[in-house]
Amino acid sequence: MRTQRRGEDALDWRMYRGSGQVQVERYFRASTRLGSSVMFYHLEPGAEEGVHHHLADDPASCSAESADEMYVVTRGEVVITGGPEPIVLRAGDAAYAPHGVPHGVRNASDEPAELVLVYGPPGV
Questions:
Q1: Number of structural domains the chain divides into
Q2: Pick from 75, 58, 55, 84: which is nearest to 67 by CA?
Q3: Which stretches are transmembrane (predicted)?
Q4: CATH number, domain at 64?
Q5: Number of H helices and number of E strands within the chain?
Q6: Closest C-alpha to 55, from 44, 46, 64
Q7: Spatial separation of the C-alpha atoms in residues 80 and 26, rounded to whole Å
Q8: d(C-alpha 120, C-alpha 124), whole Å
Q9: Both ends of the chain: CA-CA distance in Å?
Q10: Among 44, 68, 117, 118, whose Cα sits 20 to 30 Å from the Cα of 10?
Q11: Are 75 and 11 a contacting pair, CB within 8 Å?
Q12: Residue-by-residue pLDDT tens, the chain, 124 positions
């Protein structure tokens, strides 16, 4: 059994040309054998993860391999961007972006927002 305390693998990151910084906590990055990775995002008002996608062999991709992503909002309200229309998610809501689909997340509210991000190979 391993444990990780909040802040042990955290960084402030300007992601994919988004506005402001996203505080990112990466969980068990160096010690897990799970097929998926789990991260925690803290977004102050106005902060965003810019629109991006994950698709192998695509030079515009933000990663060398294909990956699916799922966002689960745990606090506040965020806007999922990148699709034909923005989608508002609140605490308890989730969004799923299959590999190759453009997506991003923005805190357009006046309060901090937090979410859990799970990403990994398609179909895992």
A1: 1
A2: 55
A3: none
A4: 2.60.120.10
A5: 0, 10
A6: 64
A7: 21
A8: 7
A9: 22
A10: 68
A11: no
A12: 777 778 777 767 676 677 777 778 777 777 776 778 888 999 999 999 888 888 788 777 767 678 888 999 999 999 999 889 999 999 999 999 988 889 999 999 999 999 999 988 887 5
